[in-house]
Amino acid sequence: MTDQRDSAPRAPEGVDTEKPSAARIYDWYLGGTQNWAVDREFGRRMEQQWPLVRPGSKQNREFMNRAVRAALRAGVRQFIDLGSGVPTAGNVHEVVEAELPEDHDAKVVYVDYEPVAVAHATLILEEGMATDWAGIVQADMRDAKSVLRAPETRRLIDFSQPVCLIMAAVLHFVGPDDDPEGLLAAYRDALAPGSWLAISQMSEGDGAGEMLEGLRWFVEQYRKTSNPVWLRDRDEIEPLFGDWPLLEPGIVHLPDWRPDRKINALEAEARPFAWCAVGVKPGA
Ligand SMILES: C[S@@+](CC[C@H](N)C(=O)[O-])C[C@H]1O[C@@H](n2cnc3c(N)ncnc32)[C@H](O)[C@@H]1O
């Protein structure tokens, strides 16, 4: 992946460019442009110690895109993307536009607590003339009520119909004190039968050796920031789906969920360090 310029984009109101932010660092990992020197410096330090962070981020994004396409092909038309971030490409509404005819009836709600993510999403939705059917809510996803009851959520989402709820690379910012199982239950309960839940989560997985050591160092660094990271293993992810059956192939590493391309050697090294799965609410 090529590096970005060292000039900063214009900072939207409320954006603190003195402290690194998880959303902007992740944008840098993906090769985006919504990041500042402080984010890039943090990102570069992470990459030096754990060179798998960029291929891992890309695999995460690709999993999310494949899950959205699968939901669309199954007839789901509503999406809530928790911790949507600022990625410059591969956003849910872009996948929708690529998959469906122009007069589609899909709806998309992005949710992030980071002001730059909100500013960026607002801009790309306005530029793409998508604000009628897609919007962003600035909220902490650990407060399910504030997400589900936000005016923008209520404007766009019909909770009597299935929703695809996406939690891609966001649950590692939800720690044990945040009651992850209770939180997931609150979201699952609010959704209609036939709804989808797509989760990806960083993990020590079945990683080993230097790369596992690097990941542990990476997690330690994030623990010192305002966005501490928590890893979860496979057996901690399954309960997050409650009684929702998992779609094939179940809980797998990111590139193994319904793959549509071959991965390279570096991507293969990143494979062990995250899990993903998609479940569907029974009773439809
Ligand atoms: C690693 S990025 C993932 C972006 C996107 N979901 C993806 O998978 O490509 C994590 C995002 O989650 C956001 N985030 C972290 N904790 C959050 C919270 N409690 N509420 C809302 N957003 C959160 C961060 O601001 C960041 O934009």
Tell me what the structure shows.
The chain has 284 residues and is α/β, with parallel strands linked by helices. The protein has a single domain (22-280), classed as Rossmann fold (3-Layer(aba) Sandwich), CATH 3.40.50.150. The protein is 39% helix and 12% strand. It has helices at residues 22-29, 37-49, 53-73, 92-99, 115-127, 144-148, 151-156, 180-190, 209-223, 234-237, 265-270; strands at 78-82, 107-112, 134-138, 164-168, 196-202, 274-280. Strands 3-2-1-4-5-6 form a six-stranded mixed beta sheet. α1 (22-29) packs across α2 (37-49). Bound molecules: S-adenosylmethionine.
How would the blueprint of this fold be written?
Blueprint: H1 22-29, H2 37-49, H3 53-73, E1 78-82, H4 92-99, E2 107-112, H5 115-127, E3 134-138, H6 144-148, H7 151-156, E4 164-168, H8 180-190, E5 196-202, H9 209-223, H10 234-237, H11 265-270, E6 274-280
S-adenosylmethionine is lined by residues 22-23, 26, 60-61, 64, 83-85, 87, 111-114, 117, 140-142, 168-170, 173.
